[in-house]
Structure formats: C-alpha cells, structure tokens
Description:
This protein has helices at residues 16-30, 50-63, 79-90, 108-114, 134-140, 194-207, 247-250, 278-289, 295-303, 307-333, 357-368, 394-411, and strands spanning 37-38, 102-105, 125-129, 148-149, 152-153, 156-160, 178-182, 210-214, 240-245, 258-261, 267-269, 275-277, 338-340, 346-350, 370-371, 373-374, 385-389. It is 37% helix and 15% strand. The protein starts with 15 loop residues before the first helix and ends with a helix. By secondary structure, the chain is α/β, with parallel strands linked by helices.
Amino acid sequence: MALVNDHFLKLPNNYLFADISKKVNAFRVTHPKADIISLGIGDVTQPLCPAIVEAIHRAADEMATRQGFRGYGPEQGYDFLREAILKNDFLPRGIHLDVDEIFINDGAKSDTGNIQELIRWDNSIGVTDPIYPVYIDSNVMIGRAGVQQDGRWSNVIYLPCTAENGFVPQLPDRRVDVIYLCYPNNPTGTVITKQELRKWVNYALKNDTLIFFDAAYQAYITDPDIPHSIYEIRGARRCAIEFHSYSKTAGFTGVRCGYTIVPKELTAASLSGERIPLNPLWLRRQSTKFNGTSYISQRAAEAIYTPEGRQQVKETIDYYMQNAHRILAAFRALGYEAYGGQNAPYIWVRTPAGLDSWTFFEQLLYGANVVCTPGVGFGPSGEGYIRFTAFGSHEQTEEALVRIEKWTKQNF
Ligand SMILES: *Cc1c(COP(=O)(O)O)cnc(C)c1O
C-alpha cells in the first residue's frame, strides 16, 4: 500500500486564483454582456522584446545543426549567462560573486519552493505577512508548518506588514531559524531601505538565522536608495540565499529562466554543531533533481544584458510602471489609502468603510466590473486590503480607473 504524504492534505484546497475565477464566472453567467477588466492579473502581458526574440531564433537555428546542437547543459547553467549576470547584476553594485555561486534555474518559483529541502523539518520559519504563498505552502508539504487554524500555521512566525507599521516588519522577538523576505514586495508593492535591510542582516548574523531573499521584482526599483540585492549589505553573504527571476524583469513567465545565489561562505549547523556549507549541498541537490534550464531560454536571458536588450526591457518596465503610477494616483485622489506602486508593479489599497477583502472584491466586480485580488488571500495581515496590478494595457487600466472613480463616488 502506498501511503500518501498527508501533509499535502493539510493544504487548504481553496486556491486564491481559482476562487477568484469562480466568482468572476458566476458573475459572467448572470451578466453575459458585462465587459470585465482585470486589474488582478499576476502575469505580464506585453510581448517579448525584439532582442530576446532574435536570440531565441538564433539559438533554435543553432540547435538545428549538428555542430550547434546542445543536449544536456551544465546543471548550474551555461557560463555565458552566469558571467553576464556577474558583470551586469552584481559588479556594478560592488558585489563580487564567483560564477560557482550562481545557479541558473527555470524560474524563481521552483527554487523558492525547493530550497527548504536543505534544512531539517524542525526548523522554525518566519515570513512577512502578507506574503507570496509559495514560501509557506512548500513548507506545509514537508510538514514543517504545523497545522492551520484561523488562516495561520502553528509553526510559522508571522511578521505583520500593515499600514500601521509602514509595511516595515518588526524583527522577531525571539530567534527564528529561517526567514523569507521578498523586496520589492508581492503583494504590497512596498520596498525595504538599505538601513532596514541591514537590521535584518544583523539580526540574522547575531541569531544564526538563514534568510531566503526573493528579489523577483528588483528590476522595478527606480529609487537609488533601495537595494536590488541583499548582498549590497555587508555580511549578507554569510546569512542569505537570493532568488532572481526574469519573469517580471523581461516577460519570461512563459520562457522560464531565473537564478539563485548561494554564497560559498554560507553555512548551516549540523546537530553536532559542525558548520556545513550550503553551496555544495545545493549543487548536489540540483545535480540530482534538476537537469538544467533549456539552452534556448538561457540564450534568451543572455540577450537581456545586451545594450538593445537592456533598453527594450526597460521600455516594457516603464510601460507597466506608468500604469502603476496612474493606479496609485487615482486611488489616492479618491481618498483611498494606497501603497506601493513606486518601485513595484503592485498597488495595495485599504478597503474603504472597513469592508473585508472579499466583500470589497465582490462589490467592485458587481459595481464596476473590475477584478482585483483580495489581500487576505496572501495571509492574515492582508485582510482589509486588495491588490491591483500594473500588468494590464494602458487602455484597459485607464478604463478600469474611470469606472472605479464613478463607482466610488456613488458608493462611499
Ligand atoms: C512572480 C514571482 C516570482 C517568479 O516566479 P517565476 O517562477 O520566476 O516565474 C517569484 N517570487 C515572487 C514573489 C513572484 O511574485
């Protein structure tokens, strides 16, 4: 008899985005003529830029020849990409990495989910709240999160990020073994300053805490004081693993490529107190369970770092950020409390009149035919907030804002 991993059964089977589409479909059935606009999408919509498409064509043509054909690549990724990453994403910020500290992946979701395999099941886990659900769910699946009660997992330490604390999480009042941080943040769109991030690194060094830092949105940072990488902070190489993704940077949600940094100095303890370097452990894990990201995707990613690639990728990000600025300004002008949207493609809005997230979601859907994402779906501290995304077209975003304005003035 095969016994199931029953930790999976603890996962709530209501998946946020499935619940949203169920409600949107129910609305569609009763309002077949309604033109629904989604400001809830968590996926990019603009096409790949020409420099990337050309690189994909070139790589495909190479694969069509006997000399250019590539089979299994190196598990850690091709040197051409790892060197481009070193030279472009880190050296200009004064960060010196070794190519062996870079692991090319097929997107940050896999690695942010898989990385917890490196630590024992009985480590304590801390997350900022609200949060990208992958961090917690991947720990639930291995039995590390405990049991769920009232939307909280018994073995997870939640660090609330709300308007009351300016979305700056308080350092935990006890020691925590592992902490997940994501900046710029999904879902709140808020950022962390160097000074605040330094406090986290110092906490981690003092308490022997491992930080998993998700930098998936670093390309959206425009403010010069906001760190793009945790390694901009002295000492972070001894306490942090960092995840990057080309998904939001360059529209790679369907191409699939990103990378993970595991510094060589980074260690965790064995039960006997020996310090074990995590870089070789992750290499061992990857070479056993991962056969690399496709050559074509890696050539596509390399093209992001060419002068044309950089320029074109920046234009797309600017396009989304124009939406972000418009959404933020429109909500503020209507008297909402709205956050984020300045160094991130997400705008986090407090619901008016103390409505809960799902009630506001339904009222906005029925009243303005606009879809948003209920904040409570990202964790208990998300209750009373909703998330809007900047990934729509300019036209649809404008139209949605016109409707929201009219609807807000009629109702609040
Ligand atoms: C979109 C996103 C990712 C990236 O996922 P990919 O697997 O690279 O597409 C990672 N972290 C967060 C917080 C995200 O929102």
